[in-house]
């Protein structure tokens, strides 16, 4: 087998493993939290959900550029293999966290997920660089598109395996990763070889500290905006949030000044002078801002509102929400490789731009749906959004990676992925805050009025109306009926006909739906604006260029040489 296909299959295995890991944890969070014995409605418990969901990406946002520079210096294959080893160890340790260990168990999971993110960081930052090294310029789009398929297939397997294993033991969720991790470790150590020149430079300690500090503080600040503070349902007024964001931004500004003065900067700012690299990353930033949290909100829409309305029990909703999201994955898996192959022939700009336009169209169509939507219409809209994401991803990545020289590919990919991760975190904070703010304005009175109209005592209706909106969404996401917060002795005093009404699958969804959809629609309109701006920047990427030894040259020139100068196109 040609070496380039050895690299492709190995990186596809890594992407498959990472995608299974991400999606299987999302699907089985209800089982994991029940296995740990955590009550999602207890004060402060929402923090554990945030950290299990976002701690992984916070770490990645902080380390990817550093790992890219380390890999450029000490060997991409070596660091890529090291990532597999770390991921394997973390998966084994995650699988032995004791059950019924409460918050201590949740804390152990968070710390081990952070350790796992270190391994994933070495894998992610090097996989694209290894593919770019191994494939010639006229085949890179296809290779990146095929690599994207494995990520989508992993998403599908994660959903199926998560739903199947959640009925047994939540520890098995982490055991699933181990065979893939061991196989990837063996294959990378025995089959991959260094093909790029190692550029050993001193570690930029001030730049590392400034960037890591900025990313961690900004990510932490944004994460805790989702926590209620005093009388507010969000944490934007929390002094710790304000301090973290302020210091983080100051460190980020300081980082830019540091990088302009040090001899061997961590973040090669000169790369932004390259037009495809600059505008490719700007369009990626806006795309991630627009897309990052919207899909998470759609999952909550399914799990907390639509599926219970249609007779699914709360324990079933995580699995079925994943299944109902499959059209988006199918759209991506079909059009990702198509976008990559078309990029090889015609350049990245038209297809990355078209992908952003289609994504914006999909978000707009989503705003037209009521909270109790027609399923066929919903699935068609998700498929359209998947097409947009598939068409954008491969061309955008190809344009960015083709624009930089071989010696900078791992660090450039680290820069690209740092932008993607930090903007996803920002997106989560902004859109979730918008949704909770609007949600909290309508929800308490809606719960109270509906409960009283059904014959519930006013005191109990007041008690239910005081459930924090974030807790209600948290419970819905975990597949837990918020009515379960009512103490059993109180439930026994409620007349049976009233109790059957508030326990019905339509009681809370019909209350949550109207206020939730207001917040979601506002978030979607912001996502549409971001996508339109991303469309403009995608178009500004310019013509097809590839960075070779003597600088940027036209990709058309390369293809002409391949066809005319080299016999039989070899």
Q: What features would you describe in this structure?
A:
There is one protein chain. A two-stranded antiparallel sheet has the order 1-2. With 570 residues, it is mainly α. Helix 3 (76-94) runs antiparallel to helix 7 (177-191), helix 5 (140-165) packs antiparallel against helix 12 (317-324) and helix 8 (205-224) packs parallel to helix 16. It folds into two domains: 3-203 and 266-440 and 512-569, MFS general substrate transporter like domains (Growth Hormone, Chain: A, Up-down Bundle), CATH 1.20.1250; 204-265. The relative contact order is 0.13. The protein has helices spanning 3-36, 46-74, 76-94, 102-134, 140-165, 172-175, 177-191, 205-224, 239-259, 275-291, 294-309, 317-324, 326-346, 349-367, 375-402, 409-453, 458-465, 469-477, 488-491, 496-502, 507-539, 555-564, and strands at residues 545-548, 551-554. The protein has 22 helices and two strands. Strand 1 (545-548) and strand 2 (551-554) form a beta hairpin.
Brief summary of the model shown:
With 570 residues, the chain is mostly helical.
What is the CATH homology-level superfamily of the largest domain?
A: MFS general substrate transporter like domains
Oligomer state equals: single chain
Shape call: globular
* Structural classification: mainly alpha
